[in-house]
């Protein structure tokens, strides 16, 4: 059985991952409405990944004899300005998630809960990847600037990235 404060902190992370999934789903819909098919596909995949992150936590909490709580979620925005602003938001959001995971790791150490600490290492590694990916995409966007042809190629490239990450997701246990 998990200590109450660990259970509460993990349930808080469950909500954050679920809200992340909703935010990226909303970004996918916005991108699709703008005709950015590749970006939309990428965001649909990101949304699925966040749901997997949430489920992994849910299963862990329940396996430890505690109770994962599914709660109301904050509604995401539905408008994102430009696609560059949208990716900046994605990057900032991932920094926020990393921070929250770090806090969680800190709590487990304080409580000497080494099993949960060990479980969370997967999330620590995942956040490094997610931050790096968001940063790479932002760098590409900055290279394109206002160039329409560049945007077309970017949309095609990111679709490729979406396909690759969805294959990786399917391969995950
Ligand atoms: Fe589950 Fe993108 O953080």
From TrEMBL:
Annotated protein name in UniProt: Ferritin
Enzyme Commission designation: 1.16.3.2
Reactions that this protein is recorded to catalyse: 4 Fe(2+) + O2 + 6 H2O = 4 iron(III) oxide-hydroxide + 12 H(+)
InterPro entries recorded: Ferritin (IPR001519), Ferritin-like (IPR012347), Ferritin-like_diiron (IPR009040), Ferritin-like_SF (IPR009078), Ferritin_DPS_dom (IPR008331), Ferritin_prok (IPR041719)
Entry superkingdom: Bacteria
Record keywords: Cytoplasm, Iron, Iron storage, Metal-binding, Oxidoreductase
EC category name: oxidoreductase
Keyword Magnesium tagged: no
Residue intervals of the Ferritin-like diiron domain: 1-145
Location relative to the cell: Cytoplasm
Function per UniProt: Iron-storage protein.
Family that this chain belongs to: Belongs to the ferritin family. Prokaryotic subfamily.
Predominant localisation class: cytoplasm
């Amino acid at each position: 059985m998990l200590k109450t404060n660990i259970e509460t902190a993990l349930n808080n992370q469950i909500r954050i991952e679920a809200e992340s999934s909703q935010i990226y789903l909303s970004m996918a819909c916005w991108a699709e409405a703008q005709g950015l098919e590749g970006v939309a596909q990428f965001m649909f995949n990101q949304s699925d990944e966040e749901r997997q992150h949430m489920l992994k936590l849910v299963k862990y909490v329940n396996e430890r004899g505690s109770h994962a709580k599914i709660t109301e979620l904050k509604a995401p925005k539905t408008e994102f300005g430009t696609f560059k602003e949208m990716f900046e938001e994605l990057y900032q959001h991932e920094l926020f998630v990393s921070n929250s995971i770090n806090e969680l790791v800190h709590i487990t150490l304080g409580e000497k809960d080494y099993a949960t600490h060990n479980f969370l290492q997967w999330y620590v590694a995942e956040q490094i990847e997610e931050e790096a990916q968001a940063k790479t995409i932002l760098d590409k966007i900055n290279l394109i600037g206002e160039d329409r042809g560049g945007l077309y190629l970017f949309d095609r490239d990111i679709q490729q990235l979406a396909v690759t990450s969805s294959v990786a997701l399917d391969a995950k246990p």
